[in-house]
Amino acid sequence: MALLLVGASPNRLMDHELHSHDFYEIIVNTEGEGTAEIGGREYPFSPGTVHVIPPAMPHRKTAPAGFRDFYMRTDTLRRTDAFHKKEVVLSEPLILADDSCHTMTNLLAILLSRYLIQKETDAVTETLYNAVMQMIEAGISSPPVNPVVSRVIQTITASYSDPDFQVTEALTATGYSKDHLRRCFQQATGMTPHGYLTDIRIRYAKRLLRQRDAVRMPVSEIAMLCGYYDPDYFCRLFRAQTGVTPTAYQREHSTSHQ
After folding, report:
1. Which ranges in 53-166 belong to alpha helices (H)?
2. Which of 88, 183, 182 is nearest to 139 (CA)?
3. What pLDDT band is residue 258 in, cutting at 50, 70 and 90?
4. What pLDDT score does 84 carry?
5. Domains observed in the chain
């Protein structure tokens, strides 16, 4: 087990003096915007920014209005079973970004709670630690996403079930040109923002339909849970996206699992 320590900043800090460690440190910024100095170079940070700092590399953070973060210390960047149990040696810092669901932030929050409660490292703690390692590996493997696009993805993900949600309003709220942002969004995801919302809703509808025998929800309720007031419109859209009606999809899925 390579986990050494998990912690959180005790309060909102404006400056953290230059320092270094004999271990890897993974820092997830949760509040505030500022500049991190790592290994003599400056990197901007904001909520969701993830820094993976190699041993003996001097680093500090400053933010005019203050910042807070979670941090995890480990003696190795051990890859888990999914990554063939290899070790990684970093000579430069890794600058990653949390995903739109705040997975890394949430994992570290849960890991910290578990770390404080348990007297010794247990299987759950190790699983959470490995999950953080997997998120780092996924971040390394994935191309970087424009932070503004990431913000729109986060808004869409949080609003998929709201029938009154308007993608245009989410784009306007960023303060950027909607046309430019649509192009950036499509370049990053392969879909338009509206298409991305539709894709999330239809994929969620498929999951609900696959459970329809157990939960016995009518199509109208599934439509509402997926963000559509009008079940007829939902059915037409579902068929346009999948080639079958919701009822046919549910029937085909049930038959394939009998």
Report:
1. 103-117, 123-141, 147-159
2. 88
3. very low
4. 47
5. 3-141 (2.60.120.280), 147-256 (1.10.10.60)
